[in-house]
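Thread: uridine-diphosphate-N-acetylglucosamine complex, take 2
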Amino acid sequence: MNTTVVILAAGLGTRMKSKRAKVLHKAGGLPLVEHVVNAALGIAEPERIVVVVGHQAAQVRAALAHTGVRFVEQKEQKGTGHALLMCRDAVPRDGLLVVGYGDVPLLAASTFRRLVDLQANSDMAATLITTRLDDPTGYGRVLIDEAGRVRAIVEQKAATPEQLKVNLINSGIYCFRADLLWRYIDRIEPNNPAHEYYLTDMAEILNAEGYHLGNMEVSDASELLGINTRLELAAVDRILRERKARQLMLDGVTIEKPETVTIDARVSIGRDTVVEPFTRILGATTIGEDCVIGAGAVLCDATLADGVEVAPYTHIEASRLDAGAHIGPFARLRMGAHLEAGSSVGNFVELKKSVLGSGSKAQHLAYLGDSTIGEKVNIGAGTITCNYDGKKKSPTRIGDRAFVGSNSTLVAPVEIGADSYVGAGSVITAAVPEGSLALGRGRQVIKDGWVARRKAGAD
Ligand code: UD1
Ligand code: CA
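Output below.
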């Protein structure tokens, strides 16, 4: 039977108190709605998944563009029933229609699958996922009949004191027989305190027509947590982080004090790598085997080969480190910096758009920008590439085995030849030929006996 999934994600999410649409807020490193789309991809092809967008529609589309799902716009947010109605011409009128909300990010694909199977093998008009909560405040309450079928769903705002005591809640995930849904959806009316078209009214509507609705009660309520406030966002983020760390540990990564690390969903880490406390490993970072990620390091969109050592408090963004490279503590790589195999970067060194050749070293206090550095080069403490003249950026090239003395200032564009030496404290403004020594500094002057002459008032 064909299955289509509609994900409602048009609301602003007033209770978030945010300028940004709720479904764009991130948990576990991904926008909330992307988690739901990922689960939906477990049961349907992308072209059979429709996301209803409204608030910040362009941003939501952009965030999901890579998934290949389709979009329908709900210009005015008049409720969940109205949001689904917008899809009438975008989805098949037969088969099964799964509806999920974009703010329920912990839902697993396997739960979607169970729901669809249950509905497909029943004679119900629809089946919905429910759970029991100690504190059901805010959720729609599910009323069931003697046979365990769903009689009605009452929203918090419309419920009687008696109904508010019900702790069986509506998760917001349903599987409908598409033919019946589309035949009766127009019967939903905004006759509630919020004047919204509640999708949940379909329960009573279908019952009135003599159909029955199934109840799929799940015991793990955490999977159904709907995000309405930033408190719930933090709770879900924590759960997703724990899951990610757990999976990595089961796959052979050592994580010290896992409750302190932040690792995004898409990150991959190889076996026997050690992740120390308070690290943040974000975006599309990939880390090889046998690496060490030191305490407090922040890595975003970084690529690390095997055996890379990142010492504590190092910041690496959109950069690459080849096998056996070492960096830190307190170092920074950004904008496509590339440390080749076995190279080493030490404390308070920054590399931007620069390549450090294999076996080369920059161990202390340096800025290397727009530079290409060969193999086995030594960059002395305090070396600065002056790559910016206030208008444009210029490149620096340093040949293999060159030795750049401490506190050198390399005024770009400039080239330092292979096997050459730059004397400490030099300001280099012209090319240094291969194999030569360049000195670009004032000559030292000694005045013998100067102190005594000064004391005598003579100087
Ligand atoms: C909804 C359910 C409630 C359930 C709860 C589970 C209804 C009427 N109530 O309540 O029974 O217990 O979810 O989390 O359905 N949306 C649109 N367009 C709209 C309105 C909402 O796309 O016009 C989207 C929102 O972006 C959101 C989702 O639908 O992703 C749910 O909306 P929300 O306002 O959070 O519903 P709840 O009040 O939580
Ligand atoms: Ca909600």
